[in-house]
UniProtKB/TrEMBL annotation, chain A:
GO terms for biological process: negative regulation of transmembrane receptor protein serine/threonine kinase signaling pathway; regulation of cellular response to growth factor stimulus; RNA polymerase II transcription initiation surveillance; snRNA 3'-end processing. It comes from Coilia grayii (Gray's grenadier anchovy). This is Integrator complex subunit 9. InterPro entries: Beta_Casp (IPR022712), Integrator_9su (IPR027074), Metallo-B-lactamas (IPR001279), RibonucZ/Hydroxyglut_hydro (IPR036866). It comes from the Eukaryota. One of its GO terms (cellular component) is cytosol.
From TrEMBL, chain B:
The keyword Cytoplasm applies. It comes from Coilia grayii (Gray's grenadier anchovy). Keywords: Cytoplasm. This is BRCA1-associated ATM activator 1. Its main location: cytoplasm. Residues 182-243 are annotated as: Disordered. PANTHER family: BRCA1-ASSOCIATED ATM ACTIVATOR 1.
Length: 627, 881
């Protein structure tokens, strides 16, 4: 059993598990942090950004004026942003049989894999994951396509040049593998390969393994996966949450007794408690609005935004926000708000019960109804005529490099009355703000990450007790800025196996058993002899029939009857002579040494009531299991 | 004595004696006993039993009955004790065999029902009540009850065991109580007779301490006179009985204590220790020595036995009790040595608890106290890694080796979360207490301790005190609210310690971090704000770094907290702003920073908060801000006048429209504050009549009382500020003050009427005095404002109530002697003087002092309830039949 690690990002994983002749890709995350090296894509022409000086090395030897621009003391690439894909060279991705998706944030690289690697398999995901994932991809493509930029920058990627560039561009990794955003056609094609599954639904893969999604409590339709055969169980824990937010609660008990637990997607900000951050978000928002300023919330169009709106809905009265409107601007804003209301079965019990009243599960419906929350596909069109200040704007993209947020940064950045509140934990906020400096608006960092923290995961692991844990290397040491916090890492016995991008791990357990069925007629013919009380042995002569990873012992076919003769006829009338078993191909099994060997290795061959023989494949057949 | 109640008593006792009847509720017997205690107290001639023969009948009947209800029997036992608390009563009861029936345990109801814990408890409390004179002691001695009482000390019911301990302590303390004239008059009041009292006392407070507290000094509890007891003769001598008979009882108890302390039964040892702790403070000289001699060796043995750490704390309680007696000064009593031994136990947790107790002692030696302080500081020292005491101390006390031996155990204990938190909390609470007496920081300087507390508070925020210092226990402390609260409490106390001020800047930085930390619990934030206030006030708020801190660090953080999601935080922050403004009243810099920070506009916004408490706090904060600014002339200089006008308008709007009482109360208080300032706001005068009217017409009685307080302020200022009484009265009349007072007087809420009555009496007195002074120089009397009663609501109410003969009583005819019939008020204009003179304000004051439930809570009502229950029981019986 092997694990190929194609992504080094702990919360945007992409791993491939080879298990019992199947090749399973676990998630397909796209690392968008590379976009921070690029200049923002303004929706409206920006005088400031268009007049940035090009970069020339100090000695004047390297002139990349067209590709690189200097802005606020840093150098940015002036082209459409590019993204860091999962590693494609570690193994042949056309051999991947299935892709299991945990949540809509972890599928953003799907078109790169399904459309450009020869992938012919199936993608499994829950319905909300598919639908909201589609929205996020649609938004992503839209953000890129509506600001076309023909220019592409490649010269700076040359190793010789890159090492001469100023940081942080100099330290960017794998730049040659960075790719531009996919097209909508590719998205549609990729998503057509998705097969929907429900929580706890068992999906058989080639008869060899069974995969089951479990609720992970992180987002609408988010799942962890169980991958198991008759005698082995691998759990894949991706973004999970134990907090009471909108999704169904996490199913923990089904993770018990795993041989291996692959743990990814823990909180990115372990020191920030989501409740405290929500409080910070609300109080900063209220403080700005009361002082007559505007609030900009760069966020994804689905996920935490539902919780933020719910929190504001409850806080609005006491916060005395007056008539300040909330705007949600995204090409998929409407769909996102509507979709969240229709996936009732994927919501927490509290919200599910509202549906029967009937009431919309999320209170943002009321905000929309009362015109408190208004949503627009873009800053163009209706929004520009209805826009009132002071207001709160929720818009993407949280990297501040593309999307409508770029316009608001240009518009509001110069006033100290305004505030930008970062709630998404995926981007370092100072890096995100870098091309907008100097900035007068207040910046507040309130990352709200509801995923498991180290304390919760330690409790979870104590509860479910996996034999081995595999996790990204970042989880095995405290964060560099807080090296004294040994509580911000996984301390387990045995220690977890750590992986990084391009690691190939041989998972530390050997498959020892395989289930083989004996057909009843063969079983009937067996003559067990008791060698000690409760233990019987019998020699079996049979044909092993393997198909679809199912193994059956069938009786040896009888030889075709000889043509009848007179002489033989007489013989046939006599009772049939009981023949002993034919000598085995491998020679006679010396019973005593055989039993002694079994005894020594504590492997017993016993006759089970269901006529199943549970033996070590290797001992009996002298052949290795499939992996 | 309430004759009506006395008349009902026989019926009630007959009902209680009837085993077929059931009580209306569980508490009525307690209430009845309380009433009987007051009756006995008032029974000066001590012949209650003669006046109420039903009592004797009831008691003798109860103790002879075979089917008595255990609860009633317990009541009867306590009642017997109460009635036999005087020698006369004892004699009367003894004649009828009631005393023997109740307490001798020879047969009858008590013996039959002995298995009931309530009966045993009643028996002990009854004995305890009776044991106020020599005859009672003799009875106990002659009846051989001591053994039984000692046996009950380990009863399976903890209430019984506690009551037995109290009785034993009472016996030991009995002969040494000084005697005065008061005698049994006090008895009924002071003795704990009820189960509840037993329960309360069982929780640790020595009975003698309680009675001493109540009486103010060691009060007499026996029936003898001071003359009889002038010398220190044992009581048995005084009553004609021999000393050995009485001392036999005490010696038996002392012997029992000695034996029990050496016992292997844990509960027995524990009870003996509790008895010692209860009895020692009340023991007189000869017996005290005997008791201590008997206890000393076993106590030493107990402390020497290493494995019995769980006994150390009860031993420490005994030593604390001993420290209040003369034993503490006697070297042969070795109290301090024993205390020292408690600090040497193997378990640091126990030692720290004992040390914490020692640090609270008033009169122990400096060495012992230093040692205790050192131990108390150990957890703090261990966690922060900073030595707090000089090494010299360990060598002085010779305990260095012992402390070294401790370290691994302490480390182990601190590695467990619950233990770590509890030990640190104990350590920090002790620091808070110790910092009140600076002298204790001789060996642990306040600055080091403050530094250590700061380090700990940083650890609680997830920071490492230093890159090198890392301790596994840190993980238990990150975000731990309990330790944070204790640490902040310690910091509050340390602010007043000399030497700690050097760390002021660091303290303010850490406190600011707490204020800014999004994960701070609201209770922690509240403490952090209290600590901030203390530490800000340590230095003159005018200093430049202080002003910089306030303007650039504190106010931005406060502004965010004023908008917090949790209303508790918003409320605490507003309270803090109020207090900060009050404390920096004379600081121009602060006032300027406040007005310039934009916080005032946030305060105005908080007047619309959804939470009433927050609106109330915002009102108070604005009130103080306006007062402070006005005080410094700030309002005229830097801020627009319209702001004050705006604040006034908003506050009046709250008073008239707010649906909750708290903000409305706060508004009136703000007006009181403004009005009572040395230079009242000029613009206030226009608003006052409206505020007074709105306030007195409010639904909330507290708003009305505060309105009367505002009227009082106005009245005081006007009466003292105006040259003539007539002018002052006219001015008050213009403000509507008299309407407010009369409306208040007629209010249905008692505190409002009481306050108004008090103010009218005060006004009448001033009018009389001032009027008399002014009349001396003039030929005409002082003019007072006039009212047309029929055209005012309060006037109509007054007239109506007069007709109804309600609370308002029309006084005698006026001084002119025209003799109008009572209640016959003149039509048309009536002068203030006449209204005042016709009201029986004294009578009203008298009537208003009685609580509104005085009729419902009366003993008469109680007994009627019992009798009604009896009748209902009969009716039900008939129905069933």
């Amino acid at each position: 059993m092997k694990l190929y690690c194609l992504s080094g990002h702990p919360t945007l994983p992409c791993n491939v598990l080879k298990f019992k002749s199947t090749t399973i890709m676990l998630d397909c995350g796209l690392d968008i942090t590379s976009a921070l090296h690029f200049l923002p894509l303004p929706l409206v022409h920006s005088q400031r950004l268009s007049k940035l000086p090009g970069w020339v090395s100090k000695d004047g030897m390297i002139n990349l004026e067209k590709e690189l621009k200097e802005c606020a003391g840093r150098v940015f690439v002036d082209s459409l942003p590019e993204f860091c894909l999962p590693e494609k060279e570690l193994l042949d991705l056309s051999t991947v049989d299935v892709i299991l998706i945990s949540n809509y944030h972890c599928m953003m690289a799907l078109p790169y894999i399904t459309e450009h690697t020869g992938f012919t398999g199936t993608v499994y995901a829950t319905e909300p994951t598919l639908q909201i994932g589609r929205l996020l991809m649609e938004e992503f493509v839209n953000f890129m396509e509506r600001v076309p930029k023909a220019q592409s920058a490649t010269c700076w990627k040359s190793k010789e040049i890159q090492r001469l560039l100023p940081g942080p561009l100099k330290d960017a990794q794998e730049v040659w593998a960075w790719k531009r955003c996919y097209s909508m056609q590719e998205v549609n094609s990729a998503l057509s390969k998705v097969q929907l599954v429900g929580y706890s639904q068992k999906v058989e893969l080639f008869g060899a393994v069974q995969v089951t999604p479990l609720s992970s409590g992180y987002s609408l339709g988010s799942s962890n996966w169980i991958i198991q055969s008759h005698y082995e169980k691998v759990s894949y824990v991706s973004g999970s949450s134990l907090l009471t937010t909108h999704p169904q609660p996490m199913d923990q008990s089904s993770l018990k007794n795993s041989d291996v637990l692959i743990l990814t997607g823990l909180t990115q900000i372990p020191t920030a408690n989501p409740d405290g951050m929500l409080g910070e978000f609300c109080s900063n928002l209220a403080m700005t609005i009361r002082a007559g300023g505007n609030v900009l919330v760069p966020c994804h169009s689905s996920g935490v935004i539902y919780d933020l709106l719910e929190c504001l809905y409850q806080f609005m009265d006491s916060a005395n926000l007056g008539t300040a409107p909330f705007y949600f601007i995204s090409p998929v804003a409407n769909s996102s708000l509507e979709f969240s209301q229709i996936f009732a079965e994927w919501l927490c019990q509290n919200k599910q019960s509202k549906v029967y009243l009937p009431e919309p599960p999320f209170p943002h419906a009321e905000l929309v109804q009362t015109n408190k929350l208004k949503h627009y596909p873009s800053i163009h069109g209706d929004f520009s005529s209805e826009f009132r200040q002071p207001c709160v704007v929720f818009t993407g993209h949280p990297s501040l490099r593309f999307g409508d947020v770029v316009h608001f940064m240009e518009l509001w950045g110069k006033s100290s009355l305004n505030t930008i509140i970062f709630t998404e934990p995926d981007f370092a906020y100072l890096d995100a703000l870098a091309p907008y400096q100097p900035l007068a608006m207040k910046c507040v960092y309130c990352p709200i990450d509801t995923r498991l923290n180290f304390h919760q995961v330690s409790k979870l692991l104590k509860e479910v007790q996996p034999l081995h844990v595999v996790c990204p290397e970042q989880y095995t040491q405290p964060p560099p800025s807080q090296s004294h916090r040994s509580d911000l890492m996984l301390e387990l016995q045995p220690p977890p196996m750590a992986y990084r991008r391009c690691s190939v791990l041989g998972l530390p357990f050997r498959r020892r058993y395989e289930r083989i069925q004996i057909l009843p007629e063969l079983a009937k013919s067996l003559v067990p002899s008791e060698i000690k009380p409760g233990v019987s042995v019998a020699t079996v002569s049979a044909v092993l029939h393997s198909k679809d990873n199912k193994h059956v012992l069938q009786p040896v076919p009888k030889p075709a009857p000889a043509p009848p003769t007179k002489k033989r006829k007489r013989v046939q009338e006599e009772p049939p002579e009981r023949l002993g078993p034919k000598p085995l191909l491998s020679g006679a099994v010396p019973l005593e040494p055989f039993l002694a060997t079994l005894h020594k290795q504590n492997k017993w061959c016993s006759m089970l009531p269901q006529m199943r023989v549970r033996v070590s494949c290797k001992e009996i057949y002298g052949t290795k299991c499939s992996n | 004595m309430d004759n009506d109640c006395i008349a009902l008593l026989p019926g009630v006792l007959t009902f209680l004696a009837d085993p077929k009847q059931s009580l209306p509720d569980d508490t009525c017997l307690e209430k009845l006993l309380d009433w009987l205690v007051s009756i006995v107290k008032e029974d000066d001639d001590r012949n209650l039993l003669d006046k109420q023969p039903s009592l004797l009948e009831f008691l003798s009947g109860m103790f002879d009955s075979k089917t008595a209800d255990p609860i009633i029997l317990s009541f009867a036992l306590k009642l017997t004790g109460l009635l036999a608390a005087t020698e006369k009563g004892f004699g009367r009861l003894d004649e009828r065999g009631v005393v023997r029936g109740a307490f001798a345990c020879e047969g009858g109801a008590v013996k039959v029902q002995w298995d009931e814990a309530s009966v045993r408890c009643g028996w002990l409390l009854g004995l305890r009540g009776m044991l106020q004179h020599g005859q009672a002691m003799l009875f106990i001695s002659e009846s051989g009850l001591t053994r039984l009482i000692l046996k009950l000390q380990c009863d399976r019911s903890l209430f019984v065991a506690a009551a037995a301990n109290q009785l034993l302590a009472h016996i030991l303390n009995f002969r040494h109580q000084p005697i005065t004239q008061q005698t049994a008059k006090e008895n009924g009041h002071d003795q704990p007779i009820t189960d509840q009292a037993a329960e309360e006392n069982g929780h640790g407070q020595p009975i003698m301490e309680q009675s001493a507290e109540k009486n103010g000094e060691d009060q007499p509890i026996t029936g003898q006179t001071a003359e009889e007891n002038e010398d220190d003769r044992p009581i048995t001598e005084q009553t004609g009985h021999t000393v050995p008979e009485c001392s036999a009882v005490t010696m038996e108890i002392v012997g029992h204590i000695e034996e029990a302390l050496a016992s292997h039964e844990h509960f027995r040892v524990l009870q003996a220790l509790r008895l010692l702790a209860l009895s020692l403070p009340g023991c007189g000289a000869p017996l005290l020595g005997s008791v201590w001699r008997a206890a000393l060796h076993p106590l030493e043995t107990l402390l020497e036995a290493g494995g019995t750490n769980n006994i150390s704390l009860p031993v420490m309680e005994v030593l604390q009790a001993a420290s209040t007696t003369e034993l503490f000064d006697q070297s042969e009593a070795r109290v301090e040595e024993l205390m020292r031994a408690t600090l040497r136990v193997d378990d640091p947790k126990i030692a720290i608890q004992c040390a914490s107790a020692i640090t609270r002692l008033q009169n122990c030696s400096e060495t012992l106290k230093k040692m205790a302080v050192g131990i108390v500081l150990q957890p703090l020292e261990f966690i922060t890694g900073s030595p707090l005491q000089s090494q010299q101390l360990d060598s002085e006390t010779g305990d260095a080796e012992h402390f070294n031996h401790w370290q691994p155990v302490l480390s182990e204990q601190l590695s467990q979360k619950s233990m770590c938190i509890s030990l640190l909390s104990l350590s920090l609470s002790s620091v808070a207490e110790l910092s009140l007496s600076n002298s204790l920081f001789v060996d642990a300087p306040a600055q080091s301790v403050t530094g250590a507390v700061l380090q700990l508070l940083k650890v609680c925020l997830g920071q490492s005190p230093s890159p090198m210092a890392y301790n596994k226990s840190f993980l238990h402390l990150i975000g731990c609210s309990r330790v944070q609260r204790c640490g902040l409490d310690a910091l509050i106390s340390l602010s007043s310690c000399e030497g700690s001020q050097g760390l002021r800047k660091e303290v303010l930085d850490v406190l600011l971090q707490y204020l800014e930390n999004p994960d701070s619990d609201p209770t922690v934030l509240q403490k952090a704000l209290q600590a901030l206030l203390k530490w800000i006030c340590v230095q003159s708020p005018d200093s430049s770094d202080q002003t910089h801190f306030l303007a650039h660090n504190l106010f931005p953080a406060l502004m965010k907290r004023v908008c917090d999601v949790h209303w508790e935080v918003r409320d605490s922050t507003l309270e803090f702003i109020t207090q900060l403004t009050v404390n920096s009243k004379d600081c121009v810099a602060l006032s300027s920073a406040l007005w310039g920070s934009g916080i005032v506009s946030l305060l105005l916004a908080c007047l619309d908060d959804s939470e009433g408490y927050v609106r109330a706090s915002a009102v108070s904060a604005l009130g103080q801000a306006v007062t402070a600014a006005h005080h410094q002339g700030e309002l005229n200089a830097n801020s627009p006048d319209s702001l004050t006008g705006d604040v006034l308008t908003r506050l009046v709007a709250i008073l008239s429209d707010d649906t909750e009482g708290f903000p409305r109360r706060a508004v009136i208080k703000a007006f009181i504050g403004w009005q009572s300032a040395p230079r009242p706001l000029a613009c206030l005068q226009h608003s006052l009549p409206g505020v007074l009217t709105l306030g007195i017409d409010d639904f909330d009685w507290e708003v009305k009382v505060h309105t009367l307080e505002l009227a009082e302020t106005l009245m005081d200022q006007t009466l003292s500020g105006c040259p003539t009484l007539a002018e002052a009265l006219e001015k008050l009349h213009e403000h509507g003050t008299f309407c407010v007072l009369f409306k208040g007087l007629l209010d249905c809420d008692r505190p409002v009427a009481q306050k108004a009555c008090q103010l009218l009496l005060k006004l009448r007195e001033v009018m009389e005095v001032k009027g008399h002074e002014e009349e001396e120089g003039s030929t005409t009397g002082v003019d007072t404002p006039t009212f047309h009663l029929q055209s005012q609501q309060w006037g109509e109410d007054l007239l109506r109530k007069c007709k109804e003969g309600g609370v308002v009583v029309v006084g005698e005819s006026d001084s002119s002697g025209e003799g109008r019939p009572e209640g016959d008020w003149p039509r048309g204009e009536v002068s203030l003087r006449e209204v005042m003179s016709r009201l029986d304000l004294e009578g009203m004051r008298e009537a208003l002092t009685q609580s509104s439930d005085h009729a419902m809570a009366s003993p008469r009502s109680l007994m009627e309830d019992i009798l009604v229950a009896a009748r209902q029981g009969d009716d039900n019986a008939v129905d069933c039949y």
